[in-house]
Amino acid sequence: MRAAAFFPILLAGMAGMTSAAVLPRSDADDIAIYGRIGICFSYFADGNIQKELAPCSVWCPTQNPDSDPNAVGCKGPGISREKIDRSIVFKDDDGKEYTPGECICDLEGASVILAVVLKALSELDEVLCGVVLSAITTLVEVGLSALPGGAPGTAARRAVESAKTFAENGLDAASYFDSWIGAVCGIPNFAFNIDDVFQGLNNAPDSLGRSRGCFKKGGC
Taking the CB of the first residue and of the last residue of the chain, which one, N or C, has fewer CB atoms within 10 A? Predict the structure, then answer.
């Protein structure tokens, strides 16, 4: 089911669940409920990846008994936190905010992997889009010491984290710049060698950012 069709249905279903929930629920309760309907924890920032995918590991085998419960993903709405209806923004037991996502089963193929990797990365908002290219080029050409604080520093760290996540999952520079930064920030082309810059971001120290992990079926 396409995300555009899935989320209106999801909104209606979650509204009913919310109004019926007169007693506090734990993460374990939500995992049990979500696992019956194919919903996952789509975190806005750092969240527990095992918790995020736990409902999908329950849901996917019910859709295909031969599927690998570990080869699952969680696809979020693909829009920033500020644009999400507050009625479907929740907090888990650790206080991390999330909105319901759609379970993806049997991860395979670059396009599916790309969709899940993009979901796993925090959205670039308008502020970060405004400084991300200058932050990336400064980081690669001059180094971390030349980066100012605030939004440029945040953008650089987000760029390193995302580049390492793309690379770990076998995605290349074109996917990184065209399908993520270019698509989200409305940038049609880049005035530098994207392969060299992508490699430079991946060579950045882990203190500046780490991969969000492997999302490929069978491991990376």
Answer: N
110-120 vs 150-168: helix axis angle to the nearest 10?
A: 150
Given a contact cutoff of 8 angstroms between Cβ atoms, the answer to whether 101 and 3 are in contact is: no
How far apart are alpha carbons 24 and 44 in whole angstroms? 22
Closest CA to 99 of 88, 107, 108: 88
Dist. CA 214–CA 205, nearest whole Å: 19
Of the candidates 119, 79, 92, 100, which has an alpha carbon nearest to the alpha carbon of residue 37?
100
Is 103 a residue whose pLDDT tops 60?
yes
Is the pLDDT reported for residue 10 higher than 70?
no
Contacts of 120 (CB under 8 A, 6+ apart): 49, 165, 212, 213, 215
Q: DSSP label at 145?
A: G
Q: Which residue has the tokens 């019926």?
A: 20
42 falls in which pLDDT band (50, 70, 90)?
Answer: confident
What does the pLDDT read at residue 18?
Answer: 45
Residue 176: how many other CB atoms lie within 10 Å: 24
pTM summary value: 0.49
What pLDDT is recorded for position 102?
A: 87
